[in-house]
Write a structure and sequence with these properties.
The chain is an all-alpha fold. It has three helices and no strands. It has one domain.
Length: 63
């Protein structure tokens, strides 16, 4: 199974947007840095790390 098989059923095709990809990468970088702040609770550190993973995955899918 490929992503192309899912187009039209659970995914929609989008045209890559270099500006949006750059924004996602920059946001992920900020979130990765925030995840390293010891002042945050472990739950919040996990949340921002997870958000970074999602942003990087989204950027990869748009490429």
């Amino acid at each position: 199974m490929t992503l192309d098989n899912l187009i039209g059923s659970t995914l929609e095709r989008i045209n890559p947007d270099p500006t949006q990809i750059l924004r996602l990468l920059q946001a992920a970088e900020r979130n990765i840095q925030d995840a390293g702040f010891a002042q945050l609770s472990n739950e919040n550190r996990f949340d921002v790390a997870y958000k970074a993973i999602m942003q990087l995955a989204n950027a990869a899918l748009q490429h």
